[in-house]
Design goal:
The protein has helices at about 5-20, 105-110; strands at about 1-5, 50-55, 60-65, 80-85. With about 120 residues, the chain is α+β, with helices and mostly antiparallel strands.
């Protein structure tokens, strides 16, 4: 799924997925205060310009959002770029993307920030 957003909006989408996620499977080994902690934008890092999360502090997220190559430039000075969700590449499955209980589709996850 491709969409247009600022980097801050993408961070907020990632935060929404993290905060809606729960520890499942081996994620319980990385759990520490994750059951009650709500994460903020400042805690979401993008060292290489993309957001690739498997487990985040024990929560099963399994979400990867990358900028679309060739469309990295800002859109009309708004700071918006084209982004693509490459994982999951199928409808979210609550057994792998635990945030899917709150956001059953990728459109709903993105739509939680971008109208």
């Amino acid at each position: 799924m491709e969409f247009t957003a600022t980097e801050e909006q993408v961070k907020q989408i990632v935060c929404n997925a993290i905060n809606a996620s729960v520890p499942i499977g081996l994620g319980i080994l990385g759990l520490y205060d994750s059951s009650v902690k709500q994460y903020t934008l400042s805690e979401v890092q993008d060292p290489d310009g993309s957001f690739d999360l498997d487990y985040f502090h024990g929560r099963m997220v399994k979400l990867c959002i990358i900028p679309v190559i060739g469309q990295l430039g800002e859109n009309k000075g708004t700071g918006e770029r084209c982004w693509k969700i490459i994982r999951p590449d199928y409808p979210p499955n609550i057994e792998y993307q635990s945030w899917a209980k709150e956001y059953p589709t990728l459109e709903e996850l993105v739509g939680s920030i971008i109208q």
